[in-house]
Amino acid sequence: MSYEHLLDQVPVWGFFILIEAITLVPIELGQRLGERRRQNPRREHEGPVGNVVGATLVLLGFMMALTLGAAQARFDARKEALIDGVNAIETAYRNASLLPEPHPGEVRKLLREYVEIRLQMPHFYHDPDRMQQMDNRVRSLQRAIWSHAETLDKADRNSEIYALFTSSLNEVFQVHNKRVILGARYRTPILVWVVLIIVTTVTMFGVGFQFGLAGNRSLIANLLLALTFALVMVIIFELDQSGRGVINVSQQPMFELHERLKAQP
Question: What tens digit of pLDDT does each residue of 176-222 get?
Fold first, then answer.
């Protein structure tokens, strides 16, 4: 498994607990160190420490905003690819009716099977082995559908109907590749997650240290801060994990297409 997909096997609740831990534990450790330093006459002044903590909080917020924006962009790209795929398949299905017999019935049957598999694929984006099996089935159907285009090519390559049909098929195949790449392969780089976690740990330690120096220890404040960061990080994680969790690209357009194609001859 690629390093970029290490988080694919981590459940959302596990990721939430991880973020809570790397937020609360450093705060607690920082507070204890800050309280010890407060007893020292040569302790650090709160002003400079506060400036450093403020700078690291801004940096952390900036990194989280960039990561969230990138995850949202990939989510939107997956949604757009789904719509493009639905339109391309429906166009190819419609163009198949223009073909001479016996091609229309056979091509449409293959396209209906194609849509059934496409409906299932998003559920296995996080499972490379199962995903490869599904993709192999799709490639097999693509070859079967394309064999009809090859037959038509031998019969009359200059036919406008042939050109229209092959163009729509090419669009179907290209969108499939795009959906697989966006859904099963593109993730937030693991190095970004590592750096984000390190910056979060350092920042929370600094926040706890400042609390300890000031003598402002508050369990409720610590919990609220940890919860806030954990929720934002979970949203980024959810947007990045296609086909899992609560935040997913709705497959309703593909499902509706499947119902329409089943109702047609």
Answer: 888 888 887 788 888 888 899 999 999 998 888 888 877 777 778 88
pLDDT-based confidence at 44, cuts 50/70/90?
A: low
How many Å from the N-terminal Cα to the C-terminal Cα in the chain?
A: 43
The two three-digit tokens of residue 248, written as one number? 């997913």
d(CA 244, CA 238): 7
How far apart, in whole angstroms, are the C-alpha atoms of residue 209 and residue 34?
Answer: 4
Provide long-range contacts, Cβ within 8 A and 24+ apart, for 222-231: 222/24, 222/27, 222/28, 223/24, 225/23, 225/27, 226/19, 226/20, 226/23, 226/24, 226/27, 227/20, 229/19, 229/23, 229/200, 229/204, 230/16, 230/19, 230/20, 230/23
Is residue 210 within 8 Å of residue 31, measured between CB atoms? no
Residue 148, C-beta contacts closer than 8 angstroms, at least 6 positions apart:
99, 103, 106, 107
What's CA 138's distance to the chain center, in Å? 21
Closest alpha carbon to 5 in 125, 180, 177, 178: 125
- pLDDT digit string (tens) for 109-162? 999 999 998 888 888 887 778 888 888 898 999 899 888 888 877 766 666 777
Structure tokens at 160: 């406008």
Q: Report whether 230 contacts 200 (CB < 8 A).
A: no
Interatomic CA distance for residues 256 and 263, integer angstroms: 11
Residue 248, CA atoms < 13 Å, CB-side half-sphere: 13
Q: Which two three-digit tokens encode residue 136?
A: 């192999």
User: 8 near 186, Cβ under 8 Å?
Assistant: no
Q: Which residue has the tokens 């459940």?
A: 11
Q: What is the distance between the alpha carbons of residues 21 and 33, in angstroms, rounded to a whole number?
A: 18
